[in-house]
Design goal:
With about 230 residues, the chain is of the alpha/beta class. Helices cover about 45% and strands about 15% of the residues. Bound molecules: nicotinamide-adenine-dinucleotide. Pfam families: adh_short, adh_short_C2.
Length: about 230
């Protein structure tokens, strides 16, 4: 019961890492879990299975959080409009969440508040493609570091988790929809699991990490791809 009495909002909680996180928050005793997502039906199903609340927005605002043009998105061929769409979700969306979560905590005089963003190993490495995704995740790490410096005086911690590949719908789309979860788990995301990533989020959300802030917690199961 690491989160007993806590109130949590999980954005992107209808699927993948967010869904598993919402489930684990509920299991760890959170008093209230709110799922915020653009997939209304899926969000409702997850929410009712864990007794959580749901906040949805128009599905038309759903945007890919992975590179729109995938491996083809190189520096030389950079599609700036596709890049803007990725940045709108991954950077602007994350910044808006951090801003409004922090304002609510400061105005509500919440002590011990914890904001956990989802970056990626792509936030501290370079890649051969998906340059928009890599740069967006570096921005998330920069946001976390600055926010942690500024919000510490209000008793708010800001950290991020940086997973390697986990077989979620988004990751499968990243492989062009040609590979299934089993293939991803046995070839790319070896040692990775949704549970492992969600456990890291629970750690950062709980009092177990009460002195930890500004951390980019890499959750990669030993992946050796940290080339800079
Ligand atoms: N799966 C991986 O391998 C992996 C690795 C590293 C980082 N990540 C990051 O983890 C996060 C979650 O990804 P996932 O793999 O669980 O994907 P996913 O597709 O399973 O889940 C993402 C959820 O976010 C929701 N969403 C998308 N745009 C939204 C918006 N504008 N507002 C609200 N909700 C929105 C989707 O509807 C979906 O339910 C992403 O930031 C991703 O970049 C994933």
């Amino acid at each position: 019961m690491k989160l007993a009495g806590k109130v949590a909002i999980v954005t992107g909680g209808a699927s993948g890492i967010g869904e598993e996180t919402a489930r684990r928050f509920a299991k760890q005793g959170a008093r209230a879990v709110v799922i915020a997502d653009v997939q209304d039906e899926l969000g409702r199903e997850v929410a009712s299975s864990i007794n959580a609340g749901i906040a949805t927005s128009s599905p038309s605002s759903a945007l890919p959080s992975l590179s729109s043009s995938g491996p083809a998105q190189t520096v030389l061929g950079l599609d700036l409009e596709a890049m803007d769409r990725v940045l709108a979700v991954n950077v602007r969306g994350t910044a808006a969440c951090v801003k409004h979560a922090a304002r609510a905590m400061v105005e509500g005089r919440v002590r011990g508040g914890s904001i956990v963003c989802t970056a990626s190993v792509a936030g501290s490495t370079g890649g051969r493609g998906m340059v928009d995704y890599y740069l967006s995740k570096h921005a998330v790490v920069g946001l976390v570091r600055s926010a942690s410096v500024q919000l510490g005086e209000h008793g708010i911690r800001v950290n991020c988790v940086s997973p390697y590949v986990v077989a979620t719908p988004m990751a499968l789309r990243g492989f062009g929809g040609e590979k299934d979860a089993e293939w991803v788990e046995s070839t790319v995301g070896v040692n990775m699991s949704l549970k492992g990533v969600a456990d890291a989020v629970v750690f950062l959300a709980s009092a177990e990490s009460e002195l930890v802030t500004g951390l980019d917690l890499v959750v990669d199961g030993g992946y050796k791809g940290h080339r800079r």
